[in-house]
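Extended Data, record Spherulation-specific family 4 protein
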Amino acid sequence: MPHLTASADARRIAGGEQLGFGVPGYAHPLLAPAEWAELARPGTPLHWAVLNIANGPGSRPDPHCLEAAGRLRNARERALHGEAPDDTVRASGGRLLGHLDLAHGERPFDELIADARAFIDWYRIGGFYLARCPADRAHLPAVRRLTGTLHALLAESDSADGGGRLVLGHGTHPHPGYAEAADQLVTFQGPWTDYRWSQVAEWTADYPPERFAHFVHGVPRTHLEEAMRVARWQGAGTIFFTDRNDRDGRSGQSDPFAALPSYWDEIVSRIGPGISE
C-alpha cells in the first residue's frame, strides 16, 4: 500500500500529543535484567511492554518471567491507585502484553487461543501484542474474529482492567479496516534509513495518535530529536527508538529491540513522565 502525506489536521493533532514507549519484547529477564527493571522505574513513560518467552508463553510458567511480570503489575497498581508521589507516578502504569505470533495469518486460531489462555492464566497479562499480523484485506475477517475472542477472554480475566489492550504488529500501514479490529496498530517497524524518509497513509488522519506505534532501529543519538519529530508529524503516540540494529552483536542479541538503547536515559528525559493508559 503506498504511503501518502498526512493531512494538515493530522499533523496539528500529532504535534500536541505526549509520546510514550511501547516495548516490542525485551530478552529473557535473566539476559536483560536492567531492561526489565527500567520498565517498573517511576518516571518512565511506558504505555506497554511485551512478554515473549519462546515465541509465545512457553510450555510452562517461567519463574523469572513470573517475577518480572509481577514487578510490572505491582508498579502499575501503585501508579493507578496513587500510592507513589504525583510527579513519579506515570509510566509505571504500563501494561504487560503477551506475545502472539500470527505468522502472517498462518497460525491456526485454536493454537493462538491456547497461547492466549496460557498467558492469562500464568502471567495475568493485560493484553496482547499480535506479532507478524497480516496487513491485507483478505485476512481482515480472521483477525477480527481473533481480536474479538481475545477481548472476550481479557474481559473475563481479573488482571486486565478496562478490558485489556490489543496491539497489531503489522510493521507497515495495513488496510484501513484493521483500525477497528484493535486498540493500536504498529504502522512502521524498520531502520532509521527508511523511517526518516517515510510518509504516513492518509487514512490515519481519521484517528488520534494513541492508535499508532512506530518502532525504529539504527537511530543515531544525533538524529534522536529528528526521529521524534517524524513520529509526531506522522501521528504516532507510542514509539521505541534504538541505536542498535539488526546486525548488532552486542549482548548476544540479533533483535535490535531486545535490549536498551545506549541513550535510554536521554530519550526518557526528552519525553518526560507520561500518562499511563
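Summary. The chain has eight helices and eight strands.
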